[in-house]
Amino acid sequence: MSRVSLRDELPAALDRVLVAETGAPEAPDLARFARAHPEVQLLGIDILDTKEGAREFYAEYDLPYPSVFDPTAEIALSFGLQGQPITYFLNERHEIVGRIIGGTDLAGFESALRNALT
Description:
The protein is an alpha/beta fold. The chain has helices spanning about 25-35, 50-60, 75-80, 105-115; strands at about 15-20, 40-45, 65-70, 85-90, 95-100. It has a single domain (about 15-115), classed as Glutaredoxin, CATH 3.40.30.10. It is built from 4 helices and 5 strands, in the order E-H-E-H-E-H-E-E-H. The longest helix has 12 residues, at about 105-115. It is globular. The model is unreliable at about 1-10 and about 10-15 (pLDDT under 50).
């Protein structure tokens, strides 16, 4: 798996990061995953959306993590965006160590986290 250095873009205090660009089908499972794994910092990237639309989406699905507004997908493209939804797992050096391309469920998030930690 290729490793993309993101050290300068993310706060040094974050040890394990999951970056998600999610849609409605997987949002409830991602919310459950976030609550089950407080040791993993989740960060959403809101692309091709308005700030109000993103706020409404996070409220509707009670997503318990912050997001960044990326209306032109510049940040997402820096991760190597390959379509939506997509989820990246970053290690303590903020390198991509895993990814999920396409939708998934709670078991898929759990499995990808285990793989990213090995």
